[in-house]
Amino acid sequence: MIFSSKLIEDAVRAFAGLPGIGRKSALRMVLHLLKQEPEKVAEFTRAIAQMHQDIRYCSQCHNVSDAEVCSICSNPGRQRSQVCVVENLRDVIAIESTQQYSGLYHVLGGILSPLDGIGPEQLQIDSLVQRVREQGIQELIMALSPTIEGDTTAYYIARQLGDTPVTLTAIARGIAFGGELEYADEMTLARSIAKRLPMDSYMSLSKA
Prior knowledge:
Layout: H1 6-16, H2 23-35, H3 38-54, E1 56-57, E2 64-65, E3 79-86, H4 89-98, E4 103-107, H5 125-135, E5 139-142, H6 148-160, E6 167-170, H7 186-194, E7 197-198, H8 199-207
Parallel strand pairs: 3-4, 3-5, 5-6
Antiparallel strand pairs: 1-2, 6-7
Helix pairs in contact: 1-2, 4-7
């Protein structure tokens, strides 16, 4: 792709660096912005810059937040004895979109993957164990992607909490093994949460 302007070329390269955006799509975005009023372009760039500068992580669940405690954790209407353990922000958004879950969350920031150098120390597992021990949490719902890495992470967490009375459940196998949670449709995801299984039954199905 040959450009007559280095400014446009640099802008296209910047957009093409985003996940799922090819150079042709990036060019369409750049040309669209080029046609906009300066105020709209300034508003767009200001929103991106402010997000990157001011975004925080909730001190309780590690979800992204505008304040020290996110809007979910600070909502008095949420079920505080129930915590859904997820891999990342996208999973929180996916589950919230079902409107079928009213508890809290705990964002691990990934899943165990020794081949990629991701061990327990790189994830928010210790803080999860601490929440269970200190906050009277009665149920942990393991809503991790049904992959070998996701199952390994769920099993590791279960072992860390073996001496606590917390009930461990996992989303039902409405989500295909090897799939990613964020790509499941809302109805399937809602059904998987509603029909969640005890962890022992879940692990037995995983090994079957």
